[in-house]
Design a protein that fits this description.
Helices cover 24% and strands 5% of the residues. The chain is mainly alpha-helical and 83 residues long. Strands 1-2 form a two-stranded antiparallel ribbon.
Length: 83
């Protein structure tokens, strides 16, 4: 369980979250990106609960690559034809 975590993220910088399997890295990122909402507590951005921000604008702040991503070497149009 995370408690009293505070961090400063700089615009235009990359951040890597690393740790042991099962330590909560993916859950932490999904909470930060609002893919999940916390069951208790709150996540603040500039002192404001992230739930108060416009969801579409807020999710545009992040670029996340999860470990289970897929990279294709052909166009999206070709991929749609293959389905």
């Amino acid at each position: 369980m995370l408690k009293n975590v505070s961090m400063k993220l700089k615009i235009g910088k990359c951040l890597a979250i690393v740790g042991m399997n099962g330590s909560g890295k993916t859950t932490f990122i999904k909470l930060l990106c609002r893919l999940y909402d916390p069951n208790e507590g709150e996540i603040l951005l500039n002192g404001i609960d992230i739930k108060k921000y416009n969801y579409e604008e807020y999710k545009g702040l992040f670029s996340v690559v999860f470990q289970d991503f897929k990279l294709f070497s052909f166009s999206l149009g070709r991929m749609l034809l293959l389905q």
